[in-house]
Specification:
- By secondary structure, the chain is of the alpha/beta class.
- It is 48% helix and 11% strand.
- It is built from seven helices and five strands.
- A five-stranded parallel β-sheet has the order 3-2-1-4-5, with helices on both faces.
């Protein structure tokens, strides 16, 4: 039985914000319609920090970026855990793996090469948005 729990890395969400009709945008819509996005305090903090960066002002004003990510956070399910997963070549991205394992996620949607190179991680697919759209079938 599927639980339809998803994890999105920050860059995929940024791409979805910049163009909702892009592949990342379509992947986000599909996940939100069919399931639940999982987050942690660490993921939430990264989302807010990255979405606040001034360099994105030329694409989308700050208030719209923050409203977008606040909406994602408000409909996401927070996962609390005491034992983080330590497995990624970039320790900053262990937070995604930790939430996936501790929250029972079925999918990690990412554009980060070192995460994608770990596919599948303990049986959890780590896919680019296009591969997620092609492989995830609504049941």
């Amino acid at each position: 039985m599927r639980n339809n729990f998803f994890i999105f890395d920050t860059n995929v969400l940024l791409s979805a914000l910049f163009n909702k009709n892009s592949t990342p945008g379509k992947a986000l819509i599909k996940a939100r319609i069919t399931g639940t996005i999982l987050i942690s305090i660490e993921i939430e903090e990264e989302y807010k920090q990255v979405f606040s960066r001034i360099k994105f002002e030329r694409y989308v004003p700050l208030n719209k970026r923050l409203a977008f990510i606040d909406n994602i956070i408000s409909v996401s399910f927070p996962i609390l855990f005491h034992t983080p997963v330590v497995a990624c070549i970039d320790p900053k991205d262990d937070k995604y793996l930790s939430v996936a394992i501790n929250g029972g996620a079925e999918w990690i949607i990412s554009g980060v090469k070192h995460l994608l190179d770990m596919h599948p991680f303990r049986g959890i697919p780590i896919l680019k948005p296009i591969d997620f759209l092609n492989e995830y079938k609504i049941t």
